[in-house]
Amino acid sequence: MGMGKKNFIFIVLFSLLITVNFTACKKNKKTNSDTLTAELTATETDYSELAEKPQNWHVTGKKILVILGYGFNEAPASENLINAIEENFGLSSEEGLVKTIIFPDDFKRGIRSYPSELYSKIQEEDENLAGIIILGAPENTHIAFARNQDNWNQEVPYPVIALFPQDEVLGLESTCDIVLDKGHTTSPDAEMLSEEIANQLIKEAPEVLVETIKYIQDLSYSLEKNSTIQTHLVQMLKNKNIHHYIDPETGLQSINHFVLN
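and the corresponding structure tokens:
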């Protein structure tokens, strides 16, 4: 093979090699650029999501126990309440402030549910408890609160509040700091009245619960059953129309039992 022909072949191969390398480099640069763009886009999306859903609560060692009883233990009422708790305070399972338990599922002893099991639930959290709130208190739950009072020699160091209960009135008044009922509406029909109140409770309960938790989370004492109770309740539920409960048999006004209109 002549020298001229060899030089020609060498030049062709060298040119091809340069072209391949240039193309590969260009492709790599494009790939790296695409990857960086994708990473930046993903990062921007993550920050965007965080901005849309900021965390309103912080990790805490304290616990407020919220019990969901009659009228609040099934969806959609239970879901609405738990969602409101999770958004504002965090659930204890995520190191948030509030632990929720639901009657009757969480009160079982064997195959039956007993409201008196509430006492053992309280004892499980007793060391870090900053308050107890029960919605729709089932019958005899006041017995568990009475046992808890005995455990603390009648000086429970945190508030106990019953919202919209169905337990015995006198029992709850003696074992809770505040008892709050829902007032009657203007419907003349008893069945319609009951349904109307139930619907109003489901609608109002998340707001009432959130404001109650906000108020008691920083209290390190139970509320004395005197004239200051109403002051606490007015501060707790601002802009709500509330009045004292009047016993229908005796006509006496309760010191710590109120009605929300």
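(Above: one complete record from the training split.) The longest strand covers residues 253-260.
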